[in-house]
Structure formats: C-alpha cells, structure tokens
Amino acid sequence: MTTDETGSAGLSWARLMRARQPTESHRASTPLELFFDLCFVVAVSLTAARLHHALAEQHVGVGLLGYLTVFFAIWWAWMNFTWFASAYDTDDALYRLTTLVQITGALVLAAGAPSAFDQIDFKIVTIGYVIMRLAMVAQWLRAGGANPDQRHGTLRFAGGITLMQVGWVARIWLPPSWTLASFLVLTVGELAVPVFAERAARTTWHPGHIAERYGLFTLIVLGEVVFGATAAIEESLAEAEHVGTLLRLAAAGIVIVFSLWWLYFDEPAGRLLSSLRMALAWGYGHYLVFASVAAVGAGLEVAIDVEAGRTQLAPALAGLATAVPVGVFLLSVWLLHVRPRPGGRVGALNVAYPLVAVLVVATAWSPAPVHLTAVLVAALVAVNTVVKRRADRALLG
Fold it and tell me: What is the rounded CA–CA span in Å between residue 154 and residue 197?
C-alpha cells in the first residue's frame, strides 16, 4: 500500500460522512432510524408508566416534575440525532456503532426513571444521558472532518454539547435544593447550542425527511398509548363489576387517540420548514407534542384506575390527568401546524383549536371527563375537515 493509499484509508472515516443534500429526492427514514425510534419509545413508555403510578398514588407534583425532566432528556437526545442524521446519515459501520451507543444510553436512562421519580435521584438518568450525548459529540467531530465548509458549525455543536455534559455531571453533586434551578439553567444551555452552532454554518437537513421522522415518532408514541390503555382495560375487566362502564371508557379513549392522529397528520408538515427560525420553533415545539401524547396514555390509565377503584385520587385531578395533556396537544398542533398554513386553510380553525382546548380542560370538573373530551376532539376533527374541504374548493375555483 502506498503512502497516498494509507492516507486515503486513514481519512475514510471522515470522507464517508459527506453532508447529504436538502433537496435530495425520495429521502426516507432508514431501518436504523426506525430501530432508534423504537428503542427510544421504550424509555418514553417507562417514563409515562411512572407518571401514571405517581398520579394514581396522589404524588402529583413529584410525578409531574419527574416526568417533564426525564422526558426532556429523552426528547432532546432523540431530536439532536434526528436532525444530525437528516444531514449526515452514511449508514456505514462506524455510524451504526455510534448510533447503537446512543440507543444504549437511552436504555440506561430508562432504567434510571424509577429512582428519578421516587427518590429525586438523577444519577442513572444522567449517566444514560451523557452516554447518548458524548456519542453525538463523536458524530459531530466526524462530520466536521468530512465537511470543511461546515466545520465551524460542527465544532460548535461538539464543543457546546461537551460543555453541557460537564454541567450535567456536576449537577449530581449539587445540594437537593438546587435540583430544579440547575435543571432549568442547563436546559436553556442545551437549547442554545443549536442556535449558536447553526449561525456559524447551516446544517443541510432535509425538510421532508425531518417531517417524516417526527411523524413516525408521533405514531409510535400513539401506539404506546393504545397498548398501555388496552393492557389497563384488560386487567380491570378481570376485576371490575361494571364491565359496561369500562368498555365505554375504552371506546372514548379510542376516539381520543384516533382524533389526535387525525389532527396531527391532517396536512404534510415538511413545507412549513422553510427557514431556520421556523425549523427551530417547530422542532423545539414538539417537546410539548410528544410529552402530551405520552401523558394522554398515563391519563387514560388513571381514569381506568378510578373506575376500577384502584386509586383515591380526587375526581377533578383524575379528569385533569387526561384533559390537560389533550389540551396541550391541541394548542401545540394549532401553533405548529395550523397557524402557519396559508390563510385560506385556517379560517375558523384559529378559533376552534384554542376553544376546544379550553373546553377539554374544563371537562375535568364534569361527571364524565374522558367521554366529553372524546366528543370535543371528534367535533374538532369534523370542523377541521369541513374547513379544509371549503378551502380546497375555493382554490379550485
């Protein structure tokens, strides 16, 4: 082997990670990306299950804090990989191994969820998170070696992520009274890294691919909601006397999940990602979308516990367990998917989405919150469909 060949082999690790083009046609999710999603949803599922147990045991405040903080770690690591893969996915052996390390970190994080919820102990969660993020640093360094024109941006990503991991590790030894404040400070730092890095060099992510990736993750989380609620219904049917009541509750839950799916996927989202500012807002805003969808599952399981007599949670709080995440989902979809549409496709929807969100939260103080929520979101689907058809007819003349 000549010197040139040796040098070429030595640099192959970088050259294989040339940036993909944002205009690439037929850019679809890869099997590795789908596997990544499925493994991350294990962490989402376990976190939602802990929220369900915390609410059922009337530990509302601690449960919500644990859920929101642990879910942030899962979502942020997933989001960073997703946008990176949209620009630099090479699917070679080194890329696959680094991605599998990230998946391992997600599973470690999931294993730490119980201690984070029950004891406010984030050591294991932090270890899992740092594993995921340091693997991401390696990916960014490799991308920088392959793309000189984007090196300033990739180095900013690598340096910023590394600095944040130092902060997360140091947070383990802070006094308990600093837990929430330190989390908020580090969260702001994490959110600032992409803004800082993209100013140096724009990452060549693919709008259609990003929209597909977010949509697929939403689908998988919705599937976990269906699975969790079905398992809870099955368990309760074996114990409960009022089978008819549980079946009606199950039917209402199905209507809610179907309606959430309909509203999220009403129109393709890729066309909305027309600028970096919009892409950041859209991408960051999905924390609320993903977290609310997973929390809907926990809320439905709490409602089943109430019917089966397995919890003493106050009726209004039990109702809010489902109503609040549904309301947050509707407001998030309105802000991210509905308002940015061309004017002719919005119309009454700018009123309908927020109004239904408020009415859904109000159902918590009614005798049948889940059933009324199902009626309201189904009605919103009907309104959404009518407005869309009228706009389509107007465009056709």
Answer: 7
For residues 168 and 186, the answer to whether their CB atoms sit within 8 Å is yes
Report angle CA 86, 90, 95 to the nearest 5 degrees: 100
pLDDT of 388 reads: 80
**Which residue in this structure is represented by tokens 């969100």?**
357
Q: Are 74 and 114 in contact (CB under 8 A)?
A: no
The one-character DSSP state at 268 is -
Whether the Cβ atoms of residue 248 and residue 367 lie closer than 8 Å to each other:
no
pLDDT of residue 345: 59
Nearest to 170 by CA among 114, 130, 204, 117: 130
Spacing of C-alpha 138 from chain mean position: 23
Examine the pLDDT at 64 and tell me if it is beyond 60.
Answer: yes
Using DSSP's 3-state secondary structure scheme, residue 34 falls into helix
d(Cα 76, Cα 5) in Å, to the nearest integer?
40
What's the average model confidence in pLDDT over 143-150? Answer: 88
Q: What is the pTM of this model?
A: 0.90
User: Among positive and negative, which fits the CA dihedral 364, 370, 372, 377?
Assistant: positive
pLDDT on residue 1 = 39
Check if the beta carbon of residue 117 is closer than 8 Å to that of residue 66: yes
Exposure string over 150-177, b if 16+ CB within 10 A, otherwise e: bbebbbbbbbbbbebbeebeebeeeeee
What average pLDDT does the segment 22-38 reach?
Answer: 86
Give the integer Cα–Cα distance in Å for 170 and 164. Answer: 10
One-letter amino acid identity for 104? T
Q: What is the pLDDT of residue 108?
A: 92
Dist CA 304 CA 325 (whole Å): 16
